[in-house]
Amino acid sequence: MKCTENGVLNNSEVYFSSPSQTAQRLHYYPISAGHFFCNNNYHLVRKDYDSILIAHILNGSFTFLKNNKYITAHSGDTVIIDCHKQHEYYTNESVEFVWLHISGGNSYDIFKEIENSYGNVIKCNDTIHIKNLFFNIIDDINSKIPPSEVNLSLDIYKIFAELLNPKTTKNEQKDLHDENIAKLKIHINENLSENLSVKYLADFMHMSSSHFSRVFKQKTGFSPYDYVLISRLNKAKNLLQKTNKTVATIASETGFNSESNFIYFFTENVGLSPRKFRNLEF
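RESULT FIELD:
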């Protein structure tokens, strides 16, 4: 359907979608979507709209307000904005963009992960793919045949995946990070009984603790602490199932400073005590 907002040109389209109760419980889903051509009269200020906005800029510029600062995205950029609170965006010249207001699942948590890691303007590695995903969703919503909510959810997740793996201007440095972190992960798994503090791991990578923690989280999805803990628990599971070693011995070999400490973390994360886990049949 045509849009009558000020500054939105006649060849623009807007579509609305109502998710089923199943989609609201289980899936990501679009609330509205559109393909807009706008001139410099386009300026939206809205108190709230219970959703996350994702917009891919095809041509021109798109400016939005974040923490009392105006940020401008350009052709090829993808913008992600929290619309659960007041938001504002406009163009100073002209803009063509495709957009989605989405909700459902853990969409807000993914938004926060993207924002905290990469900001609100993302340069995706494959702009053709992300553009096609937007148009797939828009075409599905506009279809006379009711769209598959599973397919809509999957396409939205694919957009999230593109935003979580953005292009970087430091590719060579990141390639080096990939290689070094792969070596570090091997070192961690071969030395789980040692004191693998963040400082120790950062020194291994020749980085400051804060920079190392940030890079490690970006490359693996885990904080260094969580990665070490999970690695220790995974080794403990193998030892419990495949050996007759005592719980105290396994605690020591996997780097826990006491048997009680090991039992606490194992039970907290696995949902079973080490002894109960040992008795499971796989």
